[in-house]
Amino acid sequence: MSLIVKICGLSTRETLDVALAAGADMVGFVFFPGSPRHLGLEAARELGRQAKGRAIKVALTVDADDATLANIVEALQPDILQLHGRETAARLRDIRQSFGLPVMKAIAVESASDLAPLPGLAAVADRILFDARAPSEATRPGGLGAVFDWHVLEKLDLRLPFMVSGGLHAGNVVEAVRVTRAGGVDVSSGVERAAGIKDPEMIRAFIRAARAVENDTALSASGAR
């Protein structure tokens, strides 16, 4: 099975086009004012048109209310909603029913105990994203370049598709997938030259490195999914 590669936090036509041309499967757009990657609705509308039919469009939100979600959905017309806050299983269920879109729930990971909510969330979500837990003083839940201990997921038995994020870059993405057997990888700060400023060559390098994972015989033998 092919590895899904997601480039998140895209905010310009130029860098979105680089990600699309390089073969990103998913392109993520951030709707959270506390992030340097926050996207306004008119910009989202333009970028959404640019990406339509070329990759899966992902709208990342953090504890957004229904009115905010409705505005985002109308502007971007996303294919999937990424919920990166403290949303409960009940909230996930409500969002799926209200907007008729699949949801990807982010789970912040620092230790194995952080996986406790997984069964309830996995029963409702369409996909899970494991990300590094942000420090208590952080102003946003992700996109901080932090890496978590991938071995926490080493023996994970999860039928739902899942992805890994948190501090990934071209130099460590192969190892991340080898350890976690994730079916997808998600990068944001790892392809930036400054916070919120994507670097075209770093995007290309990350996608090249991720594609190399697919040809890794050791990974294939491990039964990646």
TrEMBL record:
GO terms for molecular function: phosphoribosylanthranilate isomerase activity. Residues 5-208 form the N-(5'phosphoribosyl) anthranilate isomerase (PRAI) domain. Its EC number is 5.3.1.24. InterPro entries: Aldolase_TIM, PRAI_dom, RibuloseP-bd_barrel, TrpF_fam. SUPFAM superfamilies: Ribulose-phoshate binding barrel (SSF51366). Pathway: Amino-acid biosynthesis; L-tryptophan biosynthesis; L-tryptophan from chorismate: step 3/5. It comes from the Bacteria. Belongs to the TrpF family. This is N-(5'-phosphoribosyl)anthranilate isomerase. It comes from Bradyrhizobium erythrophlei.
